[in-house]
């Protein structure tokens, strides 16, 4: 017993520099993340206010077991929203990854540095626009009578399309808009990672007579794998969360498109608009986190078996 | 070398401390915004001769001069009833969310704005956000009871109790057809005989044929036909007939009246009277600004035509499209409630009583400081001064509007007209009944999603009701509408037994 | 091959360069265009916008929208001040804390690295939701209506810590740290003199993300700020945006339609707000871009 304590104290002392380094961050996590986590208890309660404040309210509120989770599974919509959320996110993860990495590599390889820098800045621009503004912009393209696309169709003698009532078109539109908005932002990470690669590796390859393509496939991409796998693992943890603005503002909340645009977050938003039960919204969040957590554990396990260094933990 | 290590330690320790210190030091800093008067924390020691500070949350774009005006207001109220006022304004779009967080986290407050359309009065009363004021109304709130039409307090009861004070303003809801008068005159059309949805067709036809650029019938995604039914929850399909007197809860989508209205709307849509984008149109701001519309529908108040005309910059005229009806939601158009955790509910009620009965206080809250923000032109009339742009308040959200001074251009008989308008309203059968949704929240969540999917498309005539109406009915059933209707019926029956008319 | 120019291995061929430039150029234009559009709309005459819709070259230009916003005068300037302060202080503090944490869990010699990695990751997957966080910030830390409420809740982010950790592991060869230790350098010396210069692109990335995060944040202000003098820029924009939507959605409400609608901000002023709120931060990218430079080799550091 005493020995154990001694070993523990010795370990602490040996790691003191590192422990001090994590201290500020760890404190923050305790205060701003772990402490509020206790609040998830609300998801099992029918939350009612007590005049004596928040804690009294929690204690006085009635336990309702899993009732708050029911609305997520009760109808046929449950399947649609889960399918939409997961499939869209899968598309965003895969296509986003390919595009971001490709863009990063291209931008590094362009001969004209100034042009490359300009392109980088340009691609970042959509990130600054809120979804509401993006929604307006998309509307200026897809509007039935004033939209750019329908005007073009008309001019070419083609039939106009009422975009906001044709669900089948929306998977493409949403994926396209999302990629457009985030490719610049996402490629920054890969751009930085490429910049961090030791130049001497390329020099050595060139001496061996490797062309540019070979250098990319044999040096750049393999060295990007750790970053890629971390980014992907993190995205997998969020696979049950959808970007509310993208799925609500961009399709203008058009009911006829729900089969292709309703995701967990929009469903919860609409469903709780009237009662605003915080027990139910907390429950929805817990459900999303929990599934994400399981998926991360699973994929981390797989990654870890292949290469320990690429795993999250 | 050693030195460096300690440097790093110092850095990390400092950072950790600054995290904590930053947290704690603000403790003191937060207080300085408070008014000089006693902060309400003193508990029950607020005796007769001590002033207490009341915090008041209201809706509307925050105004620059709020604190300045509230200082003046506090001087007045401190003398009259021994309270000072700290007003916090929260912008329109943020109000509901912010107040929900504030109430559910138990943030100390005294009074707040609530309504059927922002920070929902009924739901939050049930959750325990508001102080029950039945007794206070008999004591400190006597003046309010005297000045209000009884329908206001009757209609805003939740499970038999009052939790909020409705502002005295227009009481019933009256829908009108609004016309762009320029076009009406151009084609010498007349509003005579216009009342039903069918009656507008010949006019729409004329406009469609002659004015290709004009939207004949301008509607948004929230458009709903006027039906002889009362919605238990606004825009959800559980309704009770207004004129049958049978107190039977039915699904509005299954009523013949709705089917007929939707058929007409769809035919209008096909004939091009309605914009192909109506089902996703949020507001008609652009159309109204440019005047490219002929007809739409709106809820009215006395002299609304004048207000509309002056704000659009061209004449607008209107004619009724519905009966004048007093619904729960029209009664709850603007209310003030006392917070459940208020330390001074009696004082708060005294203040609200004064606000609703005392013209001096009411106008100070509404228009600011005399000779700074406005000047009086007669006993009951005023004129805004330049500084009024720093204190521009939404009049209807701050209590009894009939106490406010007339603005230039207002008719002398403005408030008499309100009286006439209010007296003309018929009482809806379910006035005072509020559906308690606690036992059907799960179903309601699905129903609202189904509603989102079909409602706008059907109501705007965008889709063929013969195809989509059965689909919608089917999906509502699957979402549990029948259970909700049964629950509503049970509650309605119990309410009716307890409140025989 | 003496006749031809020697094949250059360190560059792509001119043909490939041209094609790729063209491709990225098209994408870049597609990305910049909407932004230009926003700028143009903000200078369009409101009336002509309402009747003609969005146009690339408006029928009538106008400065009305900006005049409308500048009417608020000092409020706008104060919002700029709040946003800039929060962004600068927040980014710096955040960068230090994140880098320290990431460096610790990157080091193999750290016994508790797996624990602290998980400690961070777990927070990314689970959160207590809005109300409990609100309670901690307002009732435990008493930060309501203080500038710290805009900085502290976003200070640390497990996502950035993990990216930083990965950057360390890809950019910093372990040999360097070892060599530092052999030379007898302290942890801090190794960290500052050897590790940080090698991870400049990583630092720039996290710095950039932090800057954007703070600049674009409006939600913390929505939750914690009532005092008008502490409202950041984005929050001001968001307020106008949501209030406009709210009022429009309630336009059937008689009181609102007769009392409020005429005072509503217009489409053009909304776009002008976007221009004012994003204009300065667009310059942030080129600033951080300077650190995305190649050529910091081990040799360069060793000198």
Automatic annotation (TrEMBL), chain A:
It comes from the Bacteria. It is found in: Cell membrane. It is a multi-pass membrane protein. InterPro entries: MetI-like (IPR000515), MetI-like_sf (IPR035906), UgpAE/MalFG_permease (IPR050809). Keywords: Cell membrane, Membrane, Transmembrane, Transmembrane helix, Transport. Gene3D superfamilies: MetI-like. Residues 82-299 form the ABC transmembrane type-1 domain. The keyword Ligase does not apply. Its main location: membrane. It holds the Pfam family BPD_transp_1. SUPFAM superfamilies: MetI-like. The keyword Transport applies. GO terms for biological process: transmembrane transport. One of its GO terms (cellular component) is plasma membrane. The chain crosses the membrane at residues 20-44, 86-110, 122-144, 172-195, 216-241, 285-303. Belongs to the binding-protein-dependent transport system permease family. This is Putative aldouronate transport system permease protein. It comes from Paenibacillus algorifonticola. The lineage of its organism: Bacteria, Bacillati, Bacillota, Bacilli, Bacillales.
Automatic annotation (TrEMBL), chain B:
Keywords: Signal. Residues 429-497 form the DUF3502 domain. This is Carbohydrate ABC transporter substrate-binding protein, CUT1 family. It comes from Paenibacillus algorifonticola. The keyword Hydrolase does not apply. SUPFAM superfamilies: Periplasmic binding protein-like II (SSF53850). Residues 1-30 form the signal peptide.
TrEMBL record, chain C:
CDD domains: TM_PBP2 (cd06261). GO terms for cellular component: plasma membrane. The chain crosses the membrane at residues 20-43, 80-103, 115-141, 147-170, 191-215, 271-288. It is a multi-pass membrane protein. InterPro entries: MetI-like, MetI-like_sf. Residues 80-289 form the ABC transmembrane type-1 domain. The keyword Cell membrane applies. Belongs to the binding-protein-dependent transport system permease family. The keyword Kinase does not apply. This is Carbohydrate ABC transporter membrane protein 2, CUT1 family. It is found in: Cell membrane. Keywords: Cell membrane, Membrane, Transmembrane, Transmembrane helix, Transport.
